Amino acid sequence: MTAEKALSFSHSEATYLRTPHLNTTDPAAVRTELAAYFNANFERYESLFDTLKSDDGYYQKSIPLRHPLIFYFGHTATFFVNKLLLAGLLTQRINPRFESMFAVGVDEMSWDDLNDAHYDWPTVAEVKAYRQQVKKTVNQLIQTAPLQLPINWENPWWAIMMGIEHEQIHLETSSVLIRQQQLQWVQPHAAWLACDISGPAPENALLQVEAGTVSLGKSFDDAYYGWDNEYGQHQADVEAFKAARYLVSNQEFLAFVEAGGYLQRHYWQEEGLQWREFTQAEYPTFWIKTNQGWQLRLMAEVVPMRWDWPAEVNYHEAKAFCAWKAEQTGETVRLPTEDEWYRLVEVSGLEELNETPAAANIHLDHFASSCPVNHFAQGDFYDVRGNVWQWTETPIYPFDGSQVHRLYDDFTTPTYDGKHNLMKGGSWVSCGNETRLSSRYAFRRHFFQHAGFRYVVSEAPVVNLDSNYETDKMLSEYAEFHYGESYFDVPNFQKAIARLAIEKMSGKPSRRALDLGCAVGRASFELARHFDQVTGIDFSARLINLGVQLKRDGVVRYAVADEGDLLLYREQRLANFGLEKTAHKVDFMQGDACNLKAVYSNYDLVLAANLLDRLYDPILFLKQIHERINAGGLLVLASPYTWLEEHTDKANWLGGFKKDGESFSTLDGIKSVLEKHFQLIDGPFSQPFVIRETRRKFQHTLSEVTIWERRHVED
């Protein structure tokens, strides 16, 4: 079929459900709509895995830096359970083993555990059965859970939307992994048919885009679900520029390949050059060179090259092409910024998708693949939205006034590192929130994500909003608490509690230590002075990231509040504390202290400092912690016992209430749970700490410390 013929494409077929409008007052209608949205997405995600030929395909890694596909099959269901527990909509787990195993490991972060030896993957049938349990549970919640409208950022039902939209994201990322899977493990499927339209590639042209102002960001009362990075405000004046009418096609990119673009070092930035030399790439990843000519790998099949389809490349390849194009034309050719992309949206007259099939290759409205770059006109341009994601020059950053959602604090914040660039416009498989014009998704620059690019010509400098100093209030306070000055003659808490633990280990094995609730890692580094191996685990990837940075670079920079809008800038180095020589012994991982993976076992010491009163189920934690500690090993607990219902349901408090008419302290509760497996060998006693908020405001707190020895023979 030719592209010209395809332009008569019928828009009569049904579309996949769009992300729902949440600002409504009809509870029954909301329940009905959310149930339909949840089930449609849940089932669509499962159907994607029908492109695998057999169960064997679930257990083969597509690329070394990602889990096998069985992880992603279970991950999205586990996400529902974990977030619904945090939101208080669920009170117990469905399958603790799965909900630990499938929890983390999606973006090659340092705390992602990709060691195959740590996983005894379940069968596909077991994961399918688990998914059905989750599906039944979520449907029951949607029908019966208390519902207060509207569903907004603070509403517990936000967790349901979060789970659905999270699975939409993985619909896309899993389709990429299937495309990267060896062909022997995949097969075409009737529910995922690729486009069969191809013809001669159009010749690209530059069109003028006039200067204008863009205003980005959304308010917290917006009627549609959004991720944290979408909120806040950003305004920018965009200078006039020229932009390519079409996305760069395979045909247009071929000229760069044939000119030896991959082999010319001066076209590549340093990071891109490292990637190219590591991979030995000579052409795009999904191109296949044969004696019969070029072929193209699609998600589940190989077809003759579609020269009029967009070239799918990573950021480095797109940048190198632009450098080559600039050399050929003598013009300043580069990728657009995020702000410039929004100018393209404005001049193209794009609006949000409605319930009719989109005039774009998006939301699975048309194809399960890319299509010709001249298929969907949007104003004078083509594919401003849809077909493939478009790389931009802009590393993702937070808008002014943005916040981090308490249920998912590691969605965006780990990407505010200058190493994740924004992609705009969505691809053929982008659904739900991904298709909203306000959406902001960013990936590591060497990743492949059904992404291509268009180029612009502009003399305007690229200004990226970035800082070498961490300014997030919570992170900065933690950094100062762990690595900053001592105040009021109170010694550093993390250093003190770690040294106390080490002293109590005298004469005991010192092979492995576990620092639970490690935050930004000071105690973990201190323990490494004595132990052969230290594992620091925290629920928050935001916090872990600072520890990872310190281990990697030896330095962390942050800004602390001084007075009003004034800030003080700090630089801390491990070498300042004599910790640099043993830092290599520390590994940071993200995890749930109440539901740890089995691999976190056989420790000689477990330290849980200022953790108990922040757990959603501290009783469960204490009941299980003996499983992690060797006989004769120590458990060091420290907590101010500041019980708050926002962290821990009152039914799960260890103490701080009347029991049988008498006062029941937290220590009473700890003793009642631990005495079967532990004996108290020291404490209780108080360990003070001070947290600096501003130059003149501090928190002075006493943490009660108890030290427990794991019994050799249990009662």
Itemize the secondary structure elements and their pairings.
Elements (H helix, E strand, L loop, with lengths): L2 H4 L20 H22 L20 H19 L8 H6 L22 H21 L13 H23 L25 E4 L2 E5 L17 E5 L2 E4 L5 H9 L11 H10 L7 E4 L2 E5 L4 E3 L10 H15 L3 E2 L3 H11 L28 E2 L2 E2 L6 E7 L24 E5 L16 E4 L6 E2 L3 E2 L15 H11 L9 H12 L7 E5 L5 H6 L5 E6 L2 H13 L1 E9 L2 E8 L12 E5 L12 E7 L8 H7 L4 E11 L17 E3 L2 E3 L1 H9 L3 E17 L2 E14 L5
Parallel strand pairs: 11-14, 16-17, 16-21, 17-20, 21-22
Antiparallel strand pairs: 1-4, 2-3, 4-15, 5-6, 6-7, 8-15, 9-10, 11-12, 12-13, 18-19, 22-26, 23-24, 25-26
Helix pairs in contact: 2-5, 2-6, 3-5, 3-6, 8-9
Instruction: Just name the CATH architecture of the largest domain.
Output: 3-Layer(aba) Sandwich
Counting DSSP E segments of at least 2 residues, the number of strands comes to 26
Which word captures the global form? globular
Which structural class do you get from the secondary structure elements?
alpha+beta
Structure description:
With 715 residues, the protein is an alpha+beta fold. The chain folds into 3 domains: 3-185, dinb family like domain (Four Helix Bundle (Hemerythrin (Met), subunit A), Up-down Bundle); 235-248 and 311-457, Alpha-Beta Complex (paralog of FGE (formylglycine-generating enzyme)); 473-710, 3-Layer(aba) Sandwich (Rossmann fold), CATH 3.40.50.150. The chain is 28% helix and 20% strand. The chain has 16 helices and 26 strands. A 7-stranded mixed sheet has the order 20-17-16-21-22-26-25. The protein has a 4-stranded antiparallel sheet with strand order 1-4-15-8. Strands 13-12-11-14 form a 4-stranded mixed sheet, with no helix packed on it. A hairpin with a 2-residue loop joins strand 5 and strand 6 (293-297). The longest helix has 23 residues, at 158-180. It is globular and about 80 Å long. The N and C termini lie far apart (77 Å). The relative contact order is 0.10. Mean pLDDT is 92; it is low at 1-13.
